[in-house]
C-alpha cells in the first residue's frame, strides 16, 4: 500500500489470520441466519456487534442493525428512556468499530443515521471528532461527519472557519483543513448577499494567510492546492454567462440547400449549406449549465413557434448539463422570398432557470439578433453536383487569404463572434491587482529556490493575467507573458518527466489561445489568424470549393481550446498534432469536414464528440494509434455491449463478421452509428484490416470514399 513493499507473512501470522477468518465466517453465518429470519433479540445483536468490531466493512451487518433499531424503536416508542438507550447502545457499537478502523465508510454512515434520529448528544460527537482528528488530521470521513454535526448543531460557517485556522496554524500540511476551509468560504461567498462579506477583502486576506504556508515550506503541496482554489475564485465569473453564439449577433445568415450561393459573397461566418431544411442555433456559456429550454430562452422568428423548440445539451455523457446547447430552426421550403432578410431575435429573458453545477443562477439577461436569407434551390446546379468530389487535404488545395484584400472584412466577422460587450464578464481592477501581486511574489520565490509547483503556479498566474488583459486594456491584445509561460512549461517538462503529459496539455492550451488570439473581442490585429484561414479549392464546379478551412495543423497541440470562438467552423484541419482527445469539438455543430490524421488518438472512445456532429460528412483519422494499445478503462466513454441502458436496439450483431471479436468492433460501432459520412480515411491504424473495412461498409451506408478509393 502506498508504495510499501509486501513482506512474506511469518508462520504464526498465517495461523492467526486463519483463526480470525474462521471466527469471521462463523459470525457471518449466524448474522445471515438472523437477518433472513428477522431475529432481533439481544443475543442476535451481540453477534452482529462482534462481527462489526472485527470487520467494520461488513455492510450487511450495518444494514441488519438498522432494521433491528427500527424494529426495537417501534416497540419502545412510548418509552423515551428505552429509545435513548437503544440509540446510545448503537453509538457505542459504532465507536468500538471505529477504534479498529476509523476510516470505515459503513461505520460513519451508520453513526450519521443514528444521530439524524434526534435523540443523541451533539456535544459528545464534537469531542469524539476531536480525538479522531488528533489521531489523523486528514481523515476525510471525520471531516465529512464534522460538517454534518456542525449543521445539526447550528454552528456557523464563521466559527468553523476559525477552527480550520487553528488546525492549519498548528500544521500547514493539514490538507483536509485547507479543503474544509475552501468549502466554508465557497458557501460564505455564495451567500454574501445575506450579510457583509466582501469578496475582494476575503480573498486578499486568504492569499496573505496561504503565503505563510507556501513560503515556510514550499515543498508541501497542501497550501499550493488551496492557492490554486483561490486563483480560481479570483478569475472566474460569479454567475453563468452567455459568451458566444452561432449565428452571431448582428450577422446576416445565408442558407443554401444545394451549395450554390448565386450572387452571394461566400463567408464562413454568414453562409451555411443545408440539405435538411434546418439550421442550428448554438448557445455557448462560460461554464457548464442546465435548464436551457423554451421557457428560459425565447426565440422570435417566423420559422418556428418558440414552445416547439427542443434544446439539447452538447455533452458526450448522458448529462442534462453542458457548456454548449443547440436547437434547430426549420426553414419553410418555397415560402420565403430570396431577396428578403428575415429577422430572428433570441432572448434569455428568464435566466434564473439556467443554473451552473455549483448552483449559481444566470442573473444577466442576454439578447442577440440576426437575419436569415434563403437561397432558392438551383436545379441546374444540383444536377451538376450529382457526384460530389472527394476532399483532398493537400497543401496545394489550400490558398491563404490575401491580407490586404480580406483583412477588413474578416475583422468585421470576427467582431461578431462573441456576445456583445455588455454580456462579457468585466474584470475589475482588484482582480488585476491581486494577480499582479501574486506574480511578483512568486517570481521572487523562484529567484531564491527551484520549485516545480511554484513554476506551475506562476505559469497559471501569468496565463490568467493575460486572459484578463483584453478587458482591462481593450485596445491591446498582446500576450504580455506568452514567452515566459512557454519557458516555464518547458522547464517543468524537463524537471518533472513523470507528469510531462499534464504540462504538455497546459502548454497546448496556451499555444491554442495564441494562434487564435485574433478571434477575441479585440480584433485590431488578425495577421496571426490569417495564417490559419485558407480557401479550399479544387475545381470551380465543386460545392466545397472556395470554402474556408481553419488550418491548425502541425502546431504540437495536445488539447483543443477556445471553442467559443470556433462555432462558425465548417472545415477544420487538426492534422500533424499530438491530440489524444477531441473533447470540445461537440460544440462545433456546423462542422462538415474534419482532418485528425497523424495525431495520437489511441482508441475510438477518444472520438466520442463526433457522435454529436450530425452534419459531419468527411473524416480523416488516418495514421493515429487506434487499436495499437489496450483500451484505457479510465476513459472508457462508450457504453459496454453488455449495457442494458444504451444500445439495446442497435442490432449490433448484424454488422459484425461471424468470427470477429466483439470488443474489437463495439467502440467503432458506437461512434459511427448515426453518422452520415460520405468520406472516411482510416488507413495507418492498427485496427484496420479487410474485415474491419467490410464492417464499415455496413455501418456507414452513405460512404462513397474509403481511404482514398471510390466505392461502387
The residue ranges in which pLDDT falls below 50 over 5 or more consecutive positions are 261-265, 381-387, 404-412, 420-427, 518-525, 633-648
User: Which term fits the overall shape?
Assistant: globular
Helical segment tally? 20
> Major beta sheet, specifics?
9 strands, mixed
Helical fraction equals 40-55%
* C-alpha Rg (nearest Å): 31 Å
Q: Would you tell me the overall average pLDDT?
A: 82
Would you report the number of β strands?
A: 19
Distance between the termini: 59 Å
- With strands numbered from the N-terminus, the spatial order across the biggest sheet is 11-12-13-14-15-16-17-18-19
Strand residues, percent: 5-15%
Question: Which secondary-structure class do the elements indicate?
Answer: alpha/beta
Q: Topology, pairings included?
A:
Elements lengths: L10 H26 L5 H13 L4 H17 L4 H21 L4 H11 L6 H14 L4 H14 L3 H14 L4 H16 L8 H18 L5 H14 L6 E5 L5 E5 L14 E3 L4 E13 L7 E3 L11 E2 L8 E9 L11 E7 L6 E2 L9 E10 L3 H6 L13 E3 L2 H13 L13 H20 L3 H21 L9 H14 L4 H16 L11 H4 L2 E4 L10 E5 L19 E3 L19 E3 L22 E3 L42 H10 L6 E3 L8 H10 L5 E2 L2 E2 L2
Parallel strand pairs: 2-3, 2-10, 13-14, 14-15, 15-16, 16-17, 17-18
Antiparallel strand pairs: 1-4, 4-7, 4-9, 5-8, 6-7, 8-10, 11-12, 12-13, 18-19
Helix pairs in contact: 1-2, 2-3, 2-4, 3-4, 4-5, 6-7, 8-9, 9-11, 10-11, 11-15, 14-15, 15-16, 16-17
Amino acid at each position: 500500500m502506498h508504495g510499501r513493499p509486501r513482506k512474506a507473512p511469518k508462520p504464526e501470522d498465517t495461523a492467526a489470520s486463519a483463526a480470525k477468518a474462521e471466527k469471521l465466517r462463523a459470525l457471518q453465518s449466524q448474522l445471515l441466519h438472523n437477518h433472513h429470519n428477522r431475529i432481533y433479540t439481544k443475543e442476535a445483536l451481540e453477534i452482529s456487534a462482534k462481527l462489526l468490531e472485527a470487520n467494520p466493512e461488513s455492510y450487511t451487518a450495518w444494514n441488519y442493525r438498522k432494521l433491528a433499531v427500527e424494529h426495537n424503536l417501534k416497540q419502545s416508542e412510548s418509552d423515551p428512556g428505552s429509545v435513548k438507550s437503544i440509540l446510545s447502545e448503537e453509538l457505542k457499537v459504532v465507536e468500538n468499530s471505529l477504534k479498529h478502523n476509523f476510516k470505515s465508510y459503513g461505520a460513519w454512515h451508520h453513526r450519521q443515521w443514528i444521530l439524524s434520529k434526534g435523540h443523541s448528544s451533539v456535544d459528545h460527537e464534537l469531542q469524539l471528532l476531536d480525538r479522531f482528528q488528533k489521531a489523523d488530521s486528514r481523515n476525510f470521513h471525520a471531516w465529512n461527519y464534522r460538517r454534518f454535526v456542525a449543521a445539526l448543531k447550528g454552528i456557523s460557517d464563521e466559527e468553523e472557519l476559525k477552527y480550520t485556522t487553528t488546525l492549519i496554524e498548528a500544521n500547514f500540511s493539514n490538507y483536509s483543513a485547507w479543503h474544509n476551509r475552501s468549502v466554508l468560504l465557497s458557501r460564505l461567498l455564495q451567500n454574501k448577499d445575506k450579510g457583509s462579506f466582501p469578496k475582494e477583502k476575503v480573498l486578499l486576506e486568504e492569499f496573505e494567510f496561504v503565503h505563510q504556508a507556501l513560503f515556510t515550506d514550499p515543498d508541501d503541496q497542501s497550501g499550493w492546492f488551496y492557492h490554486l482554489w483561490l486563483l480560481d475564485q479570483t478569475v472566474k465569473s460569479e454567475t453563468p454567462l452567455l459568451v458566444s453564439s452561432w449565428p452571431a449577433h448582428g450577422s446576416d445568415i445565408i442558407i443554401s440547400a444545394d451549395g450554390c450561393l448565386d450572387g452571394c459573397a461566400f463567408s464562413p461566418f454568414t453562409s451555411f449549406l443545408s440539405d435538411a431544411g434546418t439550421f442550428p442555433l448554438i448557445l455557448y456559456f462560460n461554464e457548464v449549465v442546465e435548464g436551457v429550454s423554451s421557457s428560459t430562452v425565447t426565440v422570435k422568428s417566423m420559422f418556428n413557434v418558440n414552445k416547439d423548440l427542443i434544446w439539447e445539451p452538447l455533452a458526450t455523457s448522458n448529462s442534462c448539463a453542458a457548456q454548449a446547447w443547440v436547437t434547430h430552426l426549420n426553414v419553410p421550403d418555397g415560402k420565403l422570398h430570396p431577396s428578403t432578410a428575415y429577422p430572428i431575435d433570441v432572448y434569455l429573458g428568464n435566466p434564473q432557470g439556467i443554473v451552473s453545477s455549483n448552483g449559481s443562477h444566470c442573473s444577466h439577461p442576454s439578447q442577440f439578433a440576426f437575419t436569415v436569407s434563403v437561397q432558392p434551390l438551383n436545379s441546374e446546379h444540383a444536377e451538376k453536383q450529382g457526384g460530389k468530389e472527394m476532399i483532398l487535404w493537400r497543401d496545394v488545395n489550400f490558398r491563404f487569404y490575401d491580407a490586404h484584400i480580406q483583412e477588413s472584412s474578416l475583422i468585421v466577422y470576427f467582431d461578431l463572434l462573441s456576445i456583445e460587450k455588455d454580456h462579457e464578464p468585466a474584470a475589475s481592477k482588484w482582480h488585476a491587482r491581486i494577480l499582479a501581486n501574486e506574480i511578483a511574489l512568486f517570481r521572487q520565490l523562484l529567484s531564491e529556490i527551484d520549485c516545480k509547483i511554484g513554476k506551475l503556479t506562476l505559469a497559471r498566474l501569468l496565463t490568467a493575467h493575460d486572459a484578463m488583459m483584453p478587458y482591462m486594456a481593450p485596445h491591446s491584445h498582446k500576450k504580455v507573458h506568452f514567452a515566459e509561460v512557454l519557458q516555464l512549461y518547458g522547464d517543468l517538462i524537463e524537471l518533472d518527466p513523470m507528469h510531462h503529459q499534464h504540462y504538455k496539455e497546459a502548454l497546448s492550451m496556451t499555444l491554442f489561445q495564441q494562434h487564435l488570439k485574433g478571434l477575441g473581442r479585440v480584433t485590431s490585429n488578425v495577421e496571426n489568424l490569417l495564417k490559419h484561414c485558407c480557401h479550399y479549392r479544387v475545381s470551380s464546379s465543386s460545392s466545397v470549393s472556395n470554402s474556408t478551412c481553419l488550418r491548425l495543423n502541425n502546431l504540437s497541440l495536445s488539447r483543443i481550446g477556445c471553442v467559443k470562438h470556433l462555432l462558425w467552423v465548417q472545415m477544420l484541419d487538426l492534422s500533424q498534432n499530438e491530440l489524444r482527445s477531441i473533447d470540445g469539438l461537440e460544440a462545433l455543430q456546423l462542422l462538415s469536414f474534419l482532418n485528425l490524421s497523424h495525431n495520437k488518438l489511441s482508441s475510438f472512445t477518444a472520438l466520442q464528440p463526433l457522435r454529436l456532429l450530425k452534419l459531419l460528412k468527411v473524416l480523416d483519422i488516418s495514421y493515429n494509434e487506434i487499436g495499437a494499445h489496450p483500451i484505457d478503462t479510465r476513459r472508457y466513454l462508450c457504453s459496454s455491449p453488455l449495457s442494458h441502458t444504451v444500445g439495446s436496439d442497435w442490432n449490433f450483431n448484424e454488422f459484425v463478421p461471424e468470427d470477429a471479436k466483439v470488443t474489437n468492433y463495439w467502440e467503432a460501432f458506437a461512434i459511427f452509428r448515426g453518422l452520415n459520412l460520405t468520406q472516411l480515411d482510416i488507413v495507418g491504424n492498427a485496427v484496420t484490416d479487410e474485415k474491419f473495412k467490410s464492417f464499415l461498409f455496413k455501418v456507414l451506408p452513405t460512404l462513397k470514399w474509403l481511404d482514398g478509393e471510390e466505392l461502387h
